[in-house]
Amino acid sequence: MANRTIIFYKKHFNQFFAEQTPQVKKKIAQTLVWIQEIDRLPTSIFRSIENVKGLFEIRIEIGSNIFRIFCCFDKGNLVVLFNGFQKKTQKTPQNEIVKAERLMNEYFKEKNDGND
Questions:
Q1: pLDDT in the model for residue 3
Q2: Beta strand 56-62 pairing with 65-74
Q3: What pTM value is reported for the model?
Q4: 3 with 76: CB under 8 angstroms?
Q5: What order do you get walking across the sheet with 78-87 strand by strand?
Q6: d(CA 64, CA 72)
Q7: Which residue, 19, 21, 47, 99, has most beta carbons within 10 Å?
């Protein structure tokens, strides 16, 4: 049993989640439970982002709709969620990766400055 804890950094994930349909919200919630409980997640659900150390994406598909939520680990089993978006193209938009990397760096800077 993985026993990970998930937290949301600022308002980005909550805003993304609030905009989704009930079906998408249910799938996201189910996926987050898997992340908390399953030791070795398949790359179809969870994978690292190339060229950005420590940044991961949660992958959610519902029919032909594809969603991504960026996150990182902190203190081993703490998963910190950042921004989410619906993919419209095959490739993850660079601006979404840049935003997630900025949020991750901001999170650790605030934590190191004692604002956690």
A1: 87
A2: antiparallel
A3: 0.91
A4: no
A5: 5-8, 78-87, 65-74, 56-62, 46-48
A6: 26
A7: 99
